[in-house]
Every structure is written in structure tokens, then in C-alpha cells.
Amino acid sequence: MNYTFFAIACYILMRAFRQLFKEYQEKPWYKIVYKAIAAITLYAALAGILVWYFNLRLLGFDFK
User: Fold this and answer.
1) Cα Rg for the chain, rounded, in angstroms?
2) Are 21 and 30 in contact (CB under 8 A)?
3) Dist. CA 48–CA 13, nearest whole Å
4) Helix (H, G, I), strand (E, B) or coil at 36
5) How do residues 19-59 score in pLDDT, each as one tens digit?
6) pLDDT for the residue numbered 27
7) 6 and 61 in contact (C-beta within 8 Å)?
């Protein structure tokens, strides 16, 4: 369940970053940071799916 909450938190961070820094969308640093957050979010979502179906530990959370 920790993986699911982590993936949801990453998605919320990604959406919040987009809203908070809306006026900086044309800056190069904005695009780099947004893509980095998106990549982490995708990894967390993939890790959550793999843990759910195959019980693999990818992010280091316990199975408790």
C-alpha cells in the first residue's frame, strides 16, 4: 500500500508544481524539473503495479 500512496503523492506533486509555476512554463529549468518529476511519478506507478502483481520490492518499502 505504501507504493500506491507514494505514486499518488508524486502525482499530486507534479500537478501542484504545474500550477504553482505556471508563469515559468517557457523557461528551460521548468521543463527539465517537470520532466524529472514526471519520470519519478511513472517509476513510482510502475513500481506500485509490479509490487501489486508480482510482490517485487523496487522502492525499498516493507511489505507490512
Assistant:
1) 14
2) yes
3) 17
4) helix
5) 999 999 999 999 999 999 999 888 888 877 777 777 666 66
6) 94
7) yes
